[in-house]
């Protein structure tokens, strides 16, 4: 009976209009489902002044889905004006979660046009803002009195929980588009007859700490997520957000249309979503007056309304001509080194290259751009879509290759591999007979297996005991792919960057988290586990973790957090700064006390859980925080474990021209198998320490 009631409710919620139902439907019906909200008129005008373009924008988006993407009308729920109450908007989110017609990973779109607002964070809510503010969307009945209560906006935390609920049941192929403001700073003194209206409410409201308890309780961010070994931490994976403007900007409408929605639909109609990633939308969208649209989400490099990544087979970077120089849009922070060689192609899809460019000297390498030179001296005709693919690695990684002490077959294999390695310069591997500089040793175990041992004491599993990596590789082509990945791993891990001193004004705490029923969220418990740049934990199934970064400098900072797993040489992005394409991106950590909590609170995503390989008693890894004054795309650094047959894929990076302030902070993680009744099972909680600059 319960399932029938839910299905009936869903059919009622998503019952489309009858108009046009007799028209022939294109043969390729889209499975996309959408919730579209547009609000011009508010129940309490004193609390939220009327708009003129939000409803038109919402209807325009609905029409685009129906006419251009051929989405059936009964797949689209539209809430306009008085129908867009707080209760019905929330019911619309939940209907998407319960709709039996929506299969796992079907595309879901949630669009909102109307007022947004900013207000003081309730007590106990983690927001990360120096002024302790949270953001909300404003429903039609905002400010309306009901008996002893007042209708509030819908906070970002509540929306996050609603989206995670949908993602849990329907997958994370979810797009959220918000054409509203994040703050109300620009609306005071606005004239009633202004030709340009701001989509923001500027009123003082007090949000009760218990607001939306049922939503946050259902979200239950403490749930145990049995994530696979290679992704035991994840960030904002539930959805991708396209927002109309930055946090300190205002979303505007003029002539009965929102600036952002009008420009977005113009792009979608001209180019088509199948030819755009979420990130590239903000590269290709037309100029928008006084607004910098933002893109947030781990999956921002997917094709719009699709799970697949763009069709780029090789790791590549943009390259452009500037004042007679070939400028590669990647630099030291991306692992560019002297001696690197790059094949230049007219586009990512091209098969014929234009020529080869090289990195001549260290002066050519800046933090996020590099000057390349032709060899031999010749002129390359670059296009607006030209890309560079690294074909040879300049800086090499030292490796000891131990001769076998047993079978003749193994000895022959040893000689064959050694001879080939001497010629394969592009792998970035250099055989080190002395062993002085080597961090890794390779040995032939059997005629079918090559094994690796960690030599560097700082990288070993326990500092002095077990050194064997619990993975082997066959001696064929797979070996050279693994060696290439290992060289990339150490090149990125060892790079220290500029000693700008900015890291001394940034503190990092890594703590265990505990579920709190008073605000239905995770909260740090105990003291920081970060002690002298080392986080030493006893791995237990039920334990969850998160970290917080506080910026006390006078600079707005962008942060990327990347985890280097010393057991399988995977490199995983734990937190990625947002993007605004060619617009100005909101900083991750605002200056003068701004913070970001990752794994709980304002940072979103799920808490971190650690696990060990079945036969391992102890494992190590490194969390590296990249702090920059300019937004940098570091997704090209990440790679899956080469032992699992995956290959690293890079993404295009953006041009940067601002002041190059940056630094890195590295924490070493030691994960020990839990021994419940042993006195030395866990090192216990460490005192809170500000993580210093990575030396």
TrEMBL record:
PANTHER family: METACASPASE-1, METACASPASE-4. SUPFAM superfamilies: Caspase-like. This is Peptidase C14 caspase domain-containing protein. Keywords: Apoptosis, Hydrolase, Protease, Thiol protease. The keyword Hydrolase applies. GO terms for biological process: apoptotic process; proteolysis. InterPro entries: Caspase-like_dom_sf, Metacaspase, Pept_C14_caspase. GO terms for molecular function: cysteine-type endopeptidase activity. Residues 33-289 form the Peptidase C14 caspase domain.
């Amino acid at each position: 009976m319960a399932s029938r009631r839910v299905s009936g409710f869903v059919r009622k919620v998503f019952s489309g209009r009858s108009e046009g139902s007799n028209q022939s439907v294109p043969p390729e019906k889209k499975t996309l489902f959408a919730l579209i909200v547009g609000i011009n008129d508010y129940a309490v005008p004193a609390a939220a002044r009327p708009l003129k373009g939000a409803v038109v924008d919402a209807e325009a988006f609905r029409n685009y889905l129906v006419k251009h993407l051929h989405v059936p009308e009964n797949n689209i729920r539209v809430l306009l004006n008085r129908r867009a109450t707080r209760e019905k908007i929330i019911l619309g989110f939940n209907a998407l979660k319960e709709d039996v017609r929506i299969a796992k990973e079907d595309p879901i779109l949630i669009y909102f046009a109307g007022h947004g607002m900013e207000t003081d964070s309730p007590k106990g809510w983690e927001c990360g803002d120096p002024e302790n503010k949270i953001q909300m969307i404003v429903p039609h009945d905002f400010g309306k009195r009901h008996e002893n209560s007042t209708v509030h906006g819908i906070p970002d935390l509540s929306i996050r929980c609603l989206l995670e609920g949908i993602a849990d049941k329907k997958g994370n192929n979810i797009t959220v588009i918000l054409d509203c403001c994040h703050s109300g700073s620009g609306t005071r003194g606005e004239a009633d007859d202004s030709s340009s209206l701001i989509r923001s409410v500027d009123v003082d409201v007090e949000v009760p700490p218990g607001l939306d308890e049922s939503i946050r309780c259902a979200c239950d961010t403490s749930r145990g997520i049995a994530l696979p070994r290679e992704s035991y931490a994840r960030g904002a994976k539930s959805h991708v957000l396209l927002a109309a403007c930055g946090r300190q900007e205002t979303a505007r409408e003029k002539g009965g249309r929102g600036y952002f929605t009008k420009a977005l639909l113009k792009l979608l109609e001209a180019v088509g979503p199948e030819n755009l990633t979420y990130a590239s939308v903000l590269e290709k969208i037309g100029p928008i007056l006084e607004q910098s649209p933002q893109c947030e989400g781990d999956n921002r490099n997917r094709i719009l309304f699709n799970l697949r990544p763009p069709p780029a087979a090789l790791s590549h970077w943009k390259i452009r001509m500037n004042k007679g120089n070939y400028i590669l849009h990647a630099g030291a922070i991306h692992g560019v080194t002297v001696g690197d060689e790059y094949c230049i192609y007219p586009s990512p899809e091209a098969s014929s290259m234009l020529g080869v460019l090289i990195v001549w000297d260290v002066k050519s390498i800046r933090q996020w751009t590099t000057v390349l030179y032709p060899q031999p001296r010749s002129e390359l005709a670059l296009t607006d879509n030209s890309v560079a693919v690294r074909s040879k690695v300049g800086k090499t990684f030292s490796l000891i290759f131990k001769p076998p002490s047993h079978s003749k077959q193994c000895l022959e294999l040893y000689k064959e591999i050694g001879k080939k390695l001497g010629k394969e310069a592009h792998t970035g591997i250099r055989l080190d007979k002395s062993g002085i500089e080597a961090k890794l040793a390779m040995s032939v175990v059997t005629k079918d297996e090559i094994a690796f041992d960690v030599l560097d004491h700082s990288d070993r599993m326990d500092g002095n005991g077990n050194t064997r990596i619990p993975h082997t590789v066959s001696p064929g082509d797979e070996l050279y792919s693994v060696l290439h990945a290992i060289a990339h791993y150490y090149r990125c891990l060892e790079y220290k960057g500029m000693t700008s001193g900015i890291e001394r004004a940034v503190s990092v705490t890594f703590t265990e988290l505990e579920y709190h029923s008073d605000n239905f969220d995770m909260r740090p418990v105990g003291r920081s586990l970060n002690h002298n740049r080392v986080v030493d934990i006893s791995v237990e199934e039920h334990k969850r973790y998160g970290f917080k970064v506080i910026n006390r400098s006078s600079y707005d900072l962008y942060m990327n957090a990347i985890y280097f797993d010393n057991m399988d040489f995977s490199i995983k992005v734990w937190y990625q700064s947002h993007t605004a394409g060619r617009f100005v991106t909101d900083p991750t950590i605002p200056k003068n006390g701004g913070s970001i909590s990752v794994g709980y609170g304002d940072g979103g995503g799920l808490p971190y859980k650690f696990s060990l390989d079945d036969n391992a008693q102890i494992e190590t890894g490194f969390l590296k925080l990249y702090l920059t004054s300019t937004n940098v795309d570091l997704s090209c650094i990440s790679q899956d474990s080469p032992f699992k047959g995956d290959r690293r894929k890079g993404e295009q990076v953006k041009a940067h021209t601002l002041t190059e302030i940056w630094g890195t902070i590295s924490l070493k993680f030691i994960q020990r198998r839990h021994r419940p009744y042993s006195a030395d099972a866990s090192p216990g909680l460490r005192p809170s320490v500000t993580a210093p600059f990575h030396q």
